[in-house]
Amino acid sequence: MQLCDNLIQTLLKANVVSVTRMTRLVLPQMVQRKKGVLINIGSLSSDIPCPMLSVYAATKAYVDKFTEGLEMEYGKKGIIIQCVLPGFVCSNMSGIRKSTLLAPSAKVFVNSAIDLVGIARKTTGYFPHVIFGNVLMSIQGMCYSFCVWLVTRSMENSRLKSLKKYKKQKGKMEA
């Protein structure tokens, strides 16, 4: 695990601490009104093997499990509680610059996910991500080591591209 303490703390604060604290702030008001919508953003990475993203995937698994428990506790009180588990989305955060079928633009993803509010407790928010997740889960069920190899290879390729881009930008800054 080659993560600095700052990155680990950032992931924990963003995906565990903030989700828990924000829920603690807004949920009592929803209970009082007997209505509300609470949507937490997890990640498909929490359901599939994610080498090189272990801490990130684990914090997103927390979001999913936390949301599941909340839905069981508060779903019958008129509050819609849902966890969205997207795959890749074209955004500044993901570093994906061009949208594709499996990496939609943020706008396309949000429009799709909003249509699913209240339909299911847990959703990928975007139909192609459902297919992608199911394919990976099927491969994982048939041959776990192949699934891990496939995901690891994809992650390593992505990392190499990012490092190459970083070195290129660093070289421009030094010149």
TrEMBL record:
Gene3D superfamilies, alphabetized: NAD(P)-binding Rossmann-like Domain
Keyword flag Transmembrane: yes
GO cellular component: endoplasmic reticulum
Keywords recorded for this protein, A-Z: Membrane, Oxidoreductase, Transmembrane, Transmembrane helix
Pfam families: adh_short
Keyword Chloroplast: no
Leader sequence residues: none
Residue spans crossing the bilayer: 126-151
Gene Ontology terms, MF aspect: oxidoreductase activity
Family: Belongs to the short-chain dehydrogenases/reductases (SDR) family.
Name this protein carries in UniProt: Uncharacterized protein
Lineage: Eukaryota, Metazoa, Ecdysozoa, Arthropoda, Hexapoda
